[in-house]
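Our consortium's second objective concerns turning raw sequence data into structural hypotheses that experimental partners can test. To show how far this objective has progressed, the report includes one record in full. It was chosen at random from the queue rather than selected for favorable results. The single chain below, 124 residues long, was entered without modification.
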Amino acid sequence: MTTKSQPDAIPAGFVLSITDGAAQRVARVIAEHDLPNGAGLRAGVTQGGCSGLNYDVRIAEGPDEDDTTYVLNGTNIFVNPFSAQYIGGMTIDWISSMQESRFVFENPNATGRCGCGVSFTVDS
């Protein structure tokens, strides 16, 4: 797998979505931790994992300097340019069952993924 160089900006036409369940989970965590207005979900990727790229989603108090903020389904989503090239068109969902509770990702850019769904591959 070859990773692309760091772009300067989010690509034109970038789209991302978050389900009601995921938006509710983000809102619940923000409220439980008494985070400031403007807190949201950082949606991104890091290099590594068994398939080449790892999803990196976490609650953040605000955007980083190079992030673009999207308000989707009432939720602030922070995305940096490096991550945008890999997650454009992705849907973020939340599942909760007796066995697990976690964010899941429906990513049209992923050409392969690991069994746990946290690491993925893209064609270059």
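The partners drew two points from this record. The chain has a mean pLDDT of 87. The helical segments are 20-32, 81-87. Both points have been shared with the crystallography group to help prioritize constructs.
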